[in-house]
Design goal:
It catalyses: a nucleoside 2',3'-cyclic phosphate + H2O = a nucleoside 3'-phosphate + H(+); a ribonucleoside 3'-phosphate + H2O = a ribonucleoside + phosphate. It is found in: Cell envelope. Its main location: other. The chain has two domains: about 325 residues, Purple Acid Phosphatase, chain A, domain 2 (4-Layer Sandwich); about 220 residues, 5'-nucleotidase,  domain 2, CATH 3.90.780. It has 17 helices and 32 strands. The strands form eight sheets. A seven-stranded mixed β-sheet has the order 1-9-10-12-13-15-14, covered by helices on one side. A six-stranded mixed β-sheet has the order 7-6-5-2-16-17, with helices on one face. It has a five-stranded mixed β-sheet with strand order 24-20-28-23-29. Helix 8 crosses helix 9. The longest helix is centred in the middle third of the chain and has 18 residues.
Amino acid sequence: MPVNPMNRRQFIQKSAVTGAAVSVAGAAAPTPAAAAERAPSGPTPGRPPRTWSFSVLGTTDLHSHVFDWDYYADAPYKDKAGNSVGVARVATLIKQQRAAKGEDRVLLVDAGDIIQGTSLAYYFARVDPITGTGGKRGPRHPMAVAMNHMRYDAAALGNHEFNYGIEVLRKFESQCRFPLLGANALDAKTLRPAFQPYTVKRIRVPGAPDIKVGILGLTNPGIALWDKDNVSGKMVFPGLVEQAKKYVPRLRALGCDVVFLTDHSGLDGSSSYGDELPYVENASNLVAAQVPGIEAILVGHTHTEVPSYTVKNEQTGEDVLLSEPYCWGYRLSVFDFELELHHGQWKVTGKKAQTLNPNTVDEDPEIKRLLEADHELVVKYVNTAVGTCTEDLSAADSCWKDVPIMDFIHKVQADTVKAGLSAADAALPLISVAAPFSRTADIPQGSVTIKDIAGLYIYDNTLYGKKLTGAQLKDYLEYAAKYYHQVPAGTKVDTATLTNANNFWDYMYDTASGVDYDIDIAQPEGSRIKNLTYQGAPVAADQVFVVAVNNYRANGGSGYPHIAAADIAYSSTNEIRQLMIDYVTAKGSLDPADFAAVNWRLTQAGTPVF
């Protein structure tokens, strides 16, 4: 869920930044070791250098992973690939790069989604918020502390930066000693930049002109949908290509020798908006192809690893270099540039990119010293018991079976919406839709803690009730069913290859509770929903339902039909996860007998798969 991945204060920045904040990357001469390593690019004694080199290091989608720790498992992070997570390890790689190449030859940039995604993020946004409570000054955000220590030069805004509202984002911005860039994040009234669009860094070259590096930041237009409640009427988000065409020439006019973009946007040209927005969600490849004057782009948003990727610009024929370093601190992108001085101006003569894996290095001891206490606070918080459960509830089969752990989500959503409906809307049939966010989620028999519930509902979504007709509901469920690959009748179903058709991922796949239906995976897309009934009767095309749904989906996330434009019957700023915690706390016990019911199933030509 873009992320993935939702109080408010009028936030118009008193002095909207329209120019660049010029800063110096360092003036110290290269160390002897660095000079020796880079002899081909170093100066000849007594003669100004004609060649030079520098690097840009990049992270993205850190999602508040500081340490190599899984708060949901209450244990060090572990996956099958042997990855580590967290900026504490990445910081060690960055120190190594600076030591090898020279402190003054390395810039550090992030491509967004910094302050949401872990229990650590939630704690400092809601439990002990950085904005403060009761007139008390709030704490410093751990990600601001870590990234300041790592000496970031700039970071793009990610869409998840807006999940906790503008006030939290502005407070985080104020705590950072580097700019948050968003050239396509505009004030809704003035259409001027609400955040700094770009910054210019100088690479000092002894005896020669500085190398000027312009860093332009672009974010995702989907914020207008996904965080509509937080940004509507306050900010607008035009397309990446449109704004890059405006600012790249400006950076060149400022004398930048190198223009580097940090985009919170993938590179395949796809969108999950449906028809809700005129802009492309994953547009980095389009920016590279359609906007001349760009040397390289740090890519984010899609949580994939692309060590090096080249796009040829359509106007100039020049190659633009792109790299995406996965997410959570799994990887660090390294862009290396070679330049030559021609008539007093630096020209890029070579560039390459790669990704480095931090899983073999130790965590930075200074970050551990700075943030260990914050980490321990969050560990204590997530291990707080809120009740008990009568049996183990697992999400392992939730992507192909109707399992009780998903019915728990549906129960809380439906009960909450029902309690908040008007008298007229309360007479309508009520259903719930929700996605299986985590196949590894498990609520154990016995004591239930906050981390058990947070591991099931990993996003900070809030809750809506929207009205759909029976015909629209069927369209909605057909759209969800494209998640499955077609498996002809008589063919064995392999769950390892059944799902994620059409690049439709688990967080995008909604199941419904309150109606009964079959999903016939032997049929082609668009013809899979069979036997759709409500309380035993076929759902009529004009029958009106109230649908309990999270704000991401309600505002158009993943491109579901009808839901974004549907009438609102209920809305709340309370996170669904917290509503689930409150449910267990109030009842004291989580018992599937109170909510579990099998109301949907997979079939092949009418025969149940399981």
